[in-house]
Predict the structure.
Amino acid sequence: MDPEKKLKDLGLKLPNPPNPVANYVPYVQTNNLIFLSGCGPAKDTKIQGKIGKDLNTEEGYKIAKLVGLNLIARLKDSIGDLKNLKEIIKLLTMVNASYDFKNHSKVANGCSDLLVEVFGEKAKHTRSAIGLNSLPNNIPVEIEMIVKI
């Protein structure tokens, strides 16, 4: 399976990999593992707000999918050819949520579903989805990823 062809077939285009917005690196490789720093939606968009207050679950799902594209772009930057991916190990999805929001995992599915569509079975991963009181710049979703190459 060619992930770049799959992206094209899905009508998706990878954005430029997001640059860090503070004093950290976008990824670190240790042996055959790559730890990708958390990504939010593209910084040239003004997507902001709390899921459950300013945005609904469906909008959160779409935002998590956008974050997934940013993670794939960052992954490509780190490994060159997306075919070098062996498996996705873990996602941590952080949702900027209202105090009474309960559908964190449904938001996280936006990224998880995209990764499985693009990479197939090797993208099935462990995952945590948590709600937070805030995220940097009031972004609705931030996701970090660990992959094996």
The longest strand covers residues 87-96. The chain has a mean pLDDT of 95.
